[in-house]
Amino acid sequence: MDDLHDHSPPRGLHGVDHRIVSALRACGADPRVAGAARALSWAGEHGAVWVAAGLAGAVVDRPRRGAWLRGTALTAGAHAASSLVKRVVRRPRPAHVEPLVATVGRHSFPSSHATSAAAAAVAFGALGARAVPPLAAAVCVSRLVAGVHYPSDVAAGAALGALTARLGARWMTGGTA
Predict the structure, then answer these.
(1) φ/ψ of residue 7, rounded to 5
(2) Contact call for residues 172 and 123 (beta carbons, < 8 A)
(3) What local confidence, expressed as pLDDT, does residue 1 receive?
(4) What angle do CA 60, 169, 111 make, to 5 degrees?
């Protein structure tokens, strides 16, 4: 077969990415799983759930208001950084599965949902918000079940978010950056 008609599955990391997203997207055939994936994807859009959580933390935890607000800023900054990386890398989203959700953009790497989720997990987790890390993990998985990211997109986004929040941890808690 010539290159235009070669339908063999991708190999290497790209092939693993394809197989994993296909398997997880298949889980979305269950309406309950699909509904959860859609809700988590919607909540994580533009880091909205994390901004809301950070602002709520600032309202409820007055003694550490500044730390909550700086954690929210770190989370938003991580999200913005992932958007910039997407513009450079320009990796297309998975085309071999039917997505469960619409996306704001057509580029996949890194996952901005995963970036802001991991940043929030690190930043707000440091402030004792125990519910944030499991919710962040669920948001990350939802992007695979929704069929709009490859696992490597999510892993890279999570690494970027965690690193961003970790680098800003001293600033967040009132120390110097």
Answers:
(1) -110, 25
(2) yes
(3) 40
(4) 90
**Per-residue CA distances from 27 to 33, 34, 88, 117 (Å):** 7, 8, 31, 22
Q: Within its chain, how far is the Cα of 21 from the centroid?
A: 15
Phi/psi at 173 (5° precision): -90, 10
Query: How far is residue 31's CA from residue 81's CA, in Å, rounded to a whole number?
Result: 34
User: Whole-angstrom Cα distance, residue 86 to residue 92?
Assistant: 10
DSSP assignment of 66-133 = HHHHHHHHHHHHHHHHHHHHHHHH-PBPP-SS--SS--SSSB-SS-HHHHHHHHHHHHHHHTT-TTHH
Q: Is the predicted pLDDT of residue 29 greater than 90, yes or no?
A: no
Q: Can you give the three-state secondary structure of 27-62, one letter per residue?
A: HCCCHHHHHHHHHHHHHHHHHHHHHHHHHHHHHHCH
Global confidence as pTM: 0.86
Q: How far apart are CA 92 and CA 21, in angstroms?
A: 14
Nearest CA to 53 out of 115, 121, 105 is that of: 121
Within 10 A of 132 (CB to CB), how many other CB atoms are there?
A: 24
